[in-house]
Write a structure and sequence with these properties.
Layout lengths: L9 E5 L3 H4 L14 H25 L5 E5 L4 E2 L26 E2 H4 L1 H8 L8 E4 L7 E4 L3 H4 L3 H15 L10
Parallel strand pairs: 1-2, 2-5, 3-4
Antiparallel strand pairs: 5-6
């Protein structure tokens, strides 16, 4: 990819902080853990592995598209500014135990906006709130296990996702 902004043409994948807290096996992407949080975390782990592998393949194909990963932190309705039709008196209130530590959903979107709009953004980067759960987005180091997993694992996840989607993405592999 050239020195120009990766964000000029980018795909942004959303992950979660749970990926760093819980290490889940992604050898078989179809196997669903029993608990909802484990299933969610596994799906987001697969998302990260795929996103970084996609970026490697886009670069190998010399395509002007970047693949970036973001983590929004914790965003809840109770902290989202009122907006007609989005968050107003008609929006049902749901108690959320994370509210004291959270940010509004509008602020939680900042990491994705930065990844898409920052002229310095490059493929393979990861953006997250400065305060882990909330705050201004900044570039953070991705987890080694999702950023540079064993080649066989990245290939296996890629192949399984192609099979599940019924689509073959003809992108070269470069390590």
């Amino acid at each position: 990819m050239s020195e120009s902004s990766a964000a000029a043409r980018a795909t942004v994948h959303t992950s979660t902080g749970f990926v760093s807290q819980f290490r889940l096996d992604v050898d078989d992407v179809r196997a669903t853990p029993r608990s909802a949080i484990a299933a969610y975390t596994k799906a987001k782990t697969v998302t990260e592995v795929f996103a970084f592998e996609l970026d490697r393949r886009l670069r190998a194909a010399d395509l002007p598209v970047a693949s970036l990963v973001v983590r929004p932190g914790v965003g809840v309705d109770a902290k989202t500014p009122e907006r007609t039709g989005i968050h107003d008196a008609s929006t049902p209130y749901r108690r959320n135990p994370y509210t004291p530590w959270a940010q509004g959903k509008d602020t939680a979107a900042w990491a994705a906006v930065r990844a898409l709009a920052d002229p310095a953004a490059q493929g393979g980067e990861y953006y997250a709130p400065a305060g882990r759960l909330r705050g201004l987005p900044l570039r953070v180091e991705p987890l080694a296990r999702t950023y540079t997993p064993p080649t066989e694992l990245a290939q296996s996840v890629w192949d399984q996702l192609e099979e599940l989607a019924g689509v073959h993405l003809s992108l070269p592999i470069r390590r």
